[in-house]
User: Fold these one by one.
Assistant:
Number 1:
Amino acid sequence: MHGRLKVRTTEEQRLLKEKENQKKLVAYKQGMAFILSTRKKDSYDPEAFAVSSQILHANPHIYTLWNYRKESILLEIENYKDKEEELVKFLEKELDFTEQCILSSPKCYSSWYHRYWVLKNHPVPNWEKEFKLCAKYLSVDDRNLHCWDYRRLILNKTGLCLEKELEFSTERLNANFSNYSSWHYRSTLRTLDVESLEKELNLVQSAVFTDPYDTSAWFYFRWILNHKEILEEKLQEVLESLKQLEELEPDCKCILMAKCWIMDTLYVKDEDQKDDINEFYQKLKQLDPLRKTRYEDAIKQKNS
Amino acid sequence: MGSILKDVELKENIPTTILFAKHIEFLIDYGQQKDTYETVMTDYLKMSGMYWCLTALELIKASPFPKNDVVEFIKSCQDPECGGISASTNHDPHLLYTLSAVQILCLYDSLDAIDVEAVTKYVASLQQPDGSFAGDKWGEIDTRFSFCAIATLSLIKKLDVINVDKAVEFVKSCMNFDGGFGSRPQSESHAGLIYCCIAFLSITGRLDIVNRDNLAWWLCERQLPSGGLNGRPEKLPDVCYSWWVLSSLAILGRLHWIDKNALKKYILACQDLESGGFADRPGDMPDPYHTLFGLAALSLLGQESIEKVNAAFCMPQSVIDRLQIQPQMLK
Ligand SMILES: [Zn+2]
């Protein structure tokens, strides 16, 4: 349903496609009927299992077929009770199959979950291999939520080594500052103290200085600034550097907004600064007319 | 300096009015195609497909589908053992399709056609000790399923069978640094999941746990120069996100933080002039999913020729009123 460009086809192409689809329809129906006929039985049917692979390969969203495979796997686990080696072989084949499905549809909930489910039922799961798989998928699409979420499930199983994960997150950010997923991930890793806050502030400042028009880092910036533990001198320092950045990029709304955040914290009761902040919001209304009413609300709130 | 902004450019010859007649034709056509490869391949979500079509038709005041056929179909999808409802016959029961089925039955005022008691038990059985919900017996956890559970139980007036406080606690544990919500604790914020969590909190009357202005800022930043809204930073605009973001802003009382006219222009541009229906972006293939969310968003934007929609349930307000349900809405 997403990103499918409408393409014009000739009548001839359309008829050809229809004929092809008619064949596929018959095959699909026969396959489904065959699988369902074996489903209620209490032993696993390798032939039906193979047919479900074919159908899922074409369409991994058919969740019922993944359920059918889970039922079959449970039967096989029972069957191979005293033969771990054979069971492992069977489960590894299933993992390979899910990988093919994930590769062809990286945003399909069912295949990712099935993979996790298989590993949970695996007598000797190789979690390290899963981190490598995630790294591979993130290198193709570093915003793929399914992959990030899957990685988190695996971490919950293995336990998290903070140092390693911080390093992982820094590496991802260095590869691409504009990756919102990496900033988000970083925010989940630990509670920040005065010292680590300062480090984070330096990191995010270098990101916004690299590209002030990229909004990703600014959300992290704001979150860091919202920590009450940050020292006032540090805030003053940041404000000064923002002013320098503003001279280079006078039309960047995020710089102005960040100035407002800091000044709102620094000068809660200072009437002299109120006019300045009002003026910034007026400028924001011009720079960012889509969100004009939001700035008007901020001005109203400031003056009430 | 300056990153490339991901957005689309609206062309000159785009539709600027709502093509009502075309949409009705599109939705009816969709409901009537029976045995093609394309429709059979989407059987795994047929119940939701029907909810999208029927609700869209209801919002534009046309409901030409024979009610009996629809109700009979839903009955045939209820599992006699567990009580859950499947996407289609020969598919397995799941919370996603249980909600879609209950929504359609509420639309038709025909809840008594199914075993409501069994639905109640099914939903309750999926709540986990930490308050979260599994989508079905295989145990996948997601805040989408928390929303499905709460919305279903609220529509059938059985919220008291689950531990609502625990359910709220789980949703709260999915709140992020940006004020948004993800699918599980520490999962990245995403407009679709934010909608699920905000609608969940609206139905349970617990919007007090939300960091309103922080989240509303993140949400209104989704609007791009084309007027369309994206679902996460640095992503392309999409009609369905117009609904997820807009309904969340409406529940938070911050709908006015985006430019309504610009968004309206974008949504109208996503209509298909030939076949009717809305696509995610101008020039893409239309589908019932984006058609419902396009129309529902236009309704929230105040389009008077479309029925008023309820932001938490994505159902006609008149149906929610008839059921006497009052989800919390902030001013
Ligand atoms: Zn969409």
Number 2:
Amino acid sequence: MSIEIKTTSVEPIRHTYSHTARRFGDKPATRYQEASYDLEAKTNFHYRPQWDANYELNDERRTAIRMEDWYAVSDPRQFYYGAYVGNRAKMQEQAETSYGFCDKRNLLTRLPEETQKLLLRLMVPLRHVELGANMNNSKIAGDATATTVAQMHIYQAMDRLGIGQYLSRIALMLDGSTGAALDESKGYWMGDQLWQPMRKLVEDSLVVQDWFELTLLQNVLIDGMMFPLVYHKMDEWLESQGAEDVSMLTEFMRDWYKDTLRWTNAMMKAVAGESEANVAQLQQWIDHWEPQVYNALKPLAEASVGVEALDEARAELSTRLKKVGLQSQGVSA
Amino acid sequence: MSQLVFIVFQDNDNARYLAEAVMEDNPHAELQHQPAMIRIQAEKRLVINRETMEEKLGRDWDVQEMLIDVISIGGNVDEDDDHFILEWK
Amino acid sequence: MAVKNKKLNLKDKYQYLTRDMAWEPTYQKMEDIYPDERFEGIKIVDWSQWEDPFRLTMDAYWKYQAEKEKKLYAIFDAFAQNNGHQNISDARYVNALKLFLSGVSPLEHAAFQGYSKVGRQFSGAGARVACQMQAIDELRHSQTQQHAMSHYNKHFNGLHDAPHMHDRVWFLSVPKSFFDDARSAGPFEFLTAISFSFEYVLTNLLFVPFMSGAAYNGDMATVTFGFSAQSDEARHMTLGLEVIKFILEQHEDNVPIVQRWIDKWFWRGFRLLSLVSMMMDYMLPNKVMSWSEAWEVYYEQNGGALFKDLERYGIRPPKYQDVANDAKHHLSHQLWTTFYQYSQATNFHTWIPEKEEMDWMSEKYPETFDKYYRPRYEYLAKEAAAGRRFYNNTLPQLCQVCQVPTLFTEMGAPTKLSHRQLVHEGERYHFCSEACCDIFKHEPEKYVQAWLPVHQIYQGNCEGADVETVVQKYYHINIGEDNFEYLGSPDHKHWMSIKGEKPADENQDAA
Ligand SMILES: [Fe+2]
Ligand SMILES: [Fe+2]
Ligand SMILES: [Zn+2]
């Protein structure tokens, strides 16, 4: 008898939260589902923001993109916070081994002076691009109106800060942690003609108001050309310059980019798949920004791997966009 | 008026070393046990020294490791490689 | 290029790894990139004076946070596998969790959004990075709370639709409007409100003694997430103090602005925490510390030390702190007796405290409990025993600012209800206190916008005019499960069967 009472008393009266059950049915939900769906406040906001009185807090009209339900955009990696930091902790552990190894054996300072200079001029300034990406993603996390969307962008923001820090550490290894190499590299970012179109593009991105336009620009268009160019094509090129050890230090970026492709592709698919109007809006933004991204990266390509490599990166991006019904220039095939 | 600084740790194994080190380096501090937590308060100033912790643990210890077990603090924070200080000046 | 050969110290190195990645823009104007930094009137002369509150690079952040999460989820798993809910002191305790999940957890999410926003708004990169790190921490808190409560939700009522309720239920507009207020303000006010007034001055009251109480009531899941979240809080608190000092040091014109914000946000926070006072005194069956003791330690003592430290900037303690200090003898009792009457419209149960509990309160509140509150409970208990469990069917009058029903009494006059009113542009507004009325007077254009739940019901915006329809249809409170008296509730019966006792019969229901 008492055994029977015990079994009924551990029998659950429901299997998940009502808000989760409304979407997925009353069955045991995943940690991702319980942590990501319908948590963000939706209605009955009390006061208009003083920094933008045209809209309410959590207002869906802060972007021109319309979704019946923004939770249709979700993360194929199913990252809730715990899963996210767990994954990045593993990645950083690997990176730490490489950076430690490089540092201990002086692998960078043993490179010819000229190659060191190449790194400071062509690679380290990207830390500033990363900071721009960090800012843009933080804005998006603050504006997005579904937890599934907002959380991907705060992860992205913090990742970009981390990548900027890894790039900075390359310079700190070169100068023996005095900061001189970082100062030098920042000088290129500010004054070298090579970087000015890129710096202008980043500054222009910082005044984009529409958060979806911004995620498209930053996480799809800029990253979609820059990461293949820098961390794949330039990586191979550096190897040919005798700097193959640098590859160890950018492994994190390659793994990271591969990881982000999953969610950026899924996001584009969901948003473009929603309506013709969305496709038209996205297309208009792509027409406006994609050539600017190409031109911003061109001097970097010219000074290193050559423009063909950039054209290939551009074609790669174009193929991705085509899959969701969007067109961009520079299709090679 | 007295001006107390304080630090609260989760009551776990790490924290026992921390509490011991804090009490050793801050003889004027007062330690209170409450369910699941350890609270240490002191007039004006509390310091946690890396050296003392390393002695207690018998290994290298990074001051930032402390962040895992601290649940609250009161006082201005001054942190560097060798110590973590809470104080009212 | 200047030749350097000195190795960077930790502080300078951290600056190179954060704010040095920023640069003076030349293609776009500063005001266009950071349009929200000026309108509040705060003057920042030099962002480079910003002191980083902690020096955590992302690699270390991922490492430490992953370690914390690993420990935390191991405990969640063990808790669920072992049906840890059976080991709590008493099922009445779970009602505190219902209030927590619907009242507090959504604020963690709002904090995530708010800090993401200010993490972009400031032109100082050091401050931005500190805010972003807090943003992702707050997301963590919002999510770990969902996971910690997930198991309770499977075995108890009232936890099942917290975000939906947070947007609608009458008393949940207290926390909701608090955070909406902060998020709709400018970035400096947001930080003064949340980082300083709330995180530094007041949240200890929620997260330290209450979580310790959770442990004392056998709730491993909650104490673990609570303390694990608090380990992030040490960083947030440091940010809160750095922010205030930084703003005050930048320009003397900032002092009066900040002082007004401190006055306002101390009071807003104090009113919000009145909900916590009843959680501590009434909803923890095993008691650790009374609200008034917690207030003495965490506000009077620690807050006192803090405001003494801030004197040198020309900052004085919050304007209405005397009222708050006096209220510590009454707060939890006034709240609980009010919620007791309105249990038909809440997602948690209420009850008359048991005899030992009342004795504990007499001991903790020697000047007030026996004199003012015990007689009320004795009367209510008698009514309930006679089959007339009291529910108040008149909708309460809510304060236009804090949105708590006007249930508080005047300082030094515990039988006199505190009430203020004011006519603004032909419309009459009601307040719970002088302090709330002050807040309104300073920004009437903001507070006239308030979404006041009781007004909204009267205006027919809540799917019905009668309480039952509003509660069931609009709030998603399941009638007869989530609401009403604890004794005889499904939770109560379920608990008795867990404990192998006979389910409560009708007589006990009314007791
Ligand atoms: Fe939090
Ligand atoms: Fe916090
Ligand atoms: Zn009020």
